[in-house]
Specification:
With about 375 residues, this protein is an alpha+beta fold. The chain contains 8 helices and 20 strands. α1 runs parallel beside α5 and α1 packs across α8. It is globular, with a radius of gyration of 21 Å. The mean pLDDT is about 95.
Length: about 375
C-alpha cells in the first residue's frame, strides 16, 4: 500500500490551488481527479470573472475569501503569465429606484472594497454606449481570467513543487484508520472495459475533499451525511462577432432577489467575444448540461432591458455549467417569494473524522476565492498533521 501525507480529492481550481499551497510545505501530496483533464467541470464552465467580494454577507467565508482571493488571483496570474485583465464592472439598474445599488455599495464597503461609486446614465453611456440604465455601481476591482489556464497554472506549480497529480483517478471508498484514512482509487478508463481500470489504495494522513459537485458523495463515504449538493445549471449564449461591439467590458444587472445567481450578465472575454449568461435553473442530474436548453429568445427577453439592440439573430447557444449549491429548490408551500436563500462555503475538519477536511458548496465565487481557500485549508492541514 502506498502512503501519502495529503490526498486531495478533486482537480478543479480549488483542488489545484490547494495542491499548490500544501506542496510548498509537505511532500507526498496527491491530487486525484476522476476526469481525463483537470478543471473540466465547474472550473472551466463559468464566466471567468475575478469577483470583487461585493455581494456576500460581511464576515462570511465567501466575503473573506473572495476579497483576499481577488488580490491573490491577480498576483498569481501576473507571476505565472496567466491571461487576465482588470476591467472593472458596472452593476446596472434599469428602474428609477437606486436603493438596492446603495445597499450593494454599503455591503461592498463593509467587506473592504475600495473605489465603489454610483454613477448616472450619462456615465454608463460613456463607458457602455449601448447599455440602457438609470444608474450603476462601478466596481473597479473586478476582472476576467482565462479559467482553464488558471487551473493549469496552479497544477503546474504544484507539480513543480513535488505534488503527484493523477487524472482518470476516481475515489470509490474511504476507510478511516487509527492514524490515517485509506483511500481506494479506481484508476485508468473507468468508463471503458473492466481490463482498462484497476483499483489501488493509498494510506493518507490527511484527506481534503474538494470534489465540487460530488463533495457530498465523498463526505458520505466517511459517514458524513449532513450535506447535500443541488446542481444548478447556468447556460450561456455568445454574441455574434459582428455585434461584439455592443459590449466593452463587464455589465451586470442587480442580483437575483433570492440569491440564486448574480443575474444574466454580459462578459467581454479576453478574446474579444461577448458572453450572455448565465441563467440559473435547478436540475436533477449532476451531469445534465444539455437537456432542455433554453432558446436564444429567452436570453433576448432577459437581456433586452439592459441591451435594447440585442436580437435573437445576434446570439448562438454556447456552453453550460453546473454550480454545487447547498440550498435546495424553493418549495412554494413553504418558502416566501423573494426571501434570500444563500448558503456560505463549508470549510472545516470533519467532526467525526478529524483527518478529513471537508469543502462543501464551493460555488461562486470559488474561482476567485481559490487561493485564499487554499491558505485556509493549509492551516487546517497543519492542525491535522501537527
Amino acid at each position: 500500500m502506498d502512503r501519502a501525507n495529503i490526498v486531495i480529492i478533486g482537480g478543479g481550481v480549488v483542488g489545484c490551488a490547494i495542491a499548490r499551497a500544501v506542496s510548498q510545505r509537505w511532500d507526498d501530496v496527491f491530487l486525484l481527479d476522476q476526469m481525463p483533464k483537470l478543471g473540466m467541470v465547474t472550473s472551466s464552465r463559468n464566466s471567468g470573472v475575478i469577483h470583487s467580494g461585493l455581494y456576500y454577507t460581511p464576515g462570511s467565508l465567501k466575503a473573506r475569501h473572495c476579497l483576499a482571493g481577488n488580490r491573490l488571483t491577480y498576483e498569481f496570474c501576473a507571476a505565472h503569465n496567466v491571461p487576465h485583465r482588470r476591467t472593472g464592472k458596472l452593476v446596472v439598474t434599469t428602474t428609477p429606484e437606486e436603493a438596492e445599488l446603495t445597499h450593494l455599495a454599503e455591503r461592498g464597503r463593509a467587506n473592504g472594497l475600495e473605489g465603489l461609486r454610483i454613477v448616472d446614465r450619462a456615465a454608463i453611456r460613456a463607458r457602455e454606449p449601448h447599455i440602457e440604465g438609470r444608474a450603476a455601481l462601478e466596481v473597479p476591482s473586478t476582472g476576467i481570467v482565462a479559467s482553464e489556464e488558471l487551473v493549469k497554472a496552479y497544477a503546474r506549480v504544484a507539480a513543480e513543487q513535488g505534488a503527484n497529480i493523477l487524472t482518470h483517478a476516481r475515489v470509490v471508498r474511504l476507510e478511516p484508520q487509527k492514524d490515517s484514512i485509506q483511500v481506494w482509487i479506481r484508476t485508468g478508463n473507468a468508463a471503458g472495459p473492466t481490463s482498462d481500470a484497476s483499483v489501488e489504495s493509498v494510506d493518507a494522513r490527511c484527506v481534503v475533499n474538494a470534489a465540487g459537485l460530488f463533495a457530498d458523495e465523498v463526505a458520505a463515504m466517511l459517514g458524513n451525511t449532513n450535506y447535500r449538493i443541488y446542481p444548478v445549471r447556468g447556460e450561456y449564449c455568445e454574441v455574434t462577432r459582428a455585434k461584439s461591439y455592443l459590449i466593452n467590458g463587464l455589465v451586470y444587472p442587480l442580483p437575483h432577489p433570492e440569491g440564486l445567481s448574480l443575474g444574466l450578465h454580459f462578459t467581454k472575454t479576453l478574446w474579444g467575444t461577448v458572453l450572455v449568461g448565465p441563467t440559473a435553473r435547478y436540475v436533477a442530474d449532476k451531469t445534465d448540461y444539455e437537456r432542455d436548453r433554453l432558446p436564444v429568445e429567452e436570453f433576448v427577453r432577459r437581456a433586452k432591458p439592459m441591451l435594447p439592440e440585442i436580437e435573437a439573430s445576434d446570439l448562438t447557444l454556447a456552453y453550460s455549467g453546473l454550480r454545487p449549491k447547498l440550498v435546495p429548490p424553493p418549495d412554494p408551500a413553504r418558502d416566501k417569494p423573494g426571501v434570500k436563500r444563500i448558503a456560505d462555503f463549508v470549510i472545516t475538519r470533519d467532526p467525526s473524522v478529524p483527518r478529513a477536511i471537508q469543502l462543501i458548496g464551493i460555488d461562486s465565487p470559488g474561482l476567485t476565492a481559490a487561493p485564499s481557500i487554499a491558505q485556509h485549508v493549509s492551516q487546517l492541514v497543519a492542525q491535522t498533521l501537527g
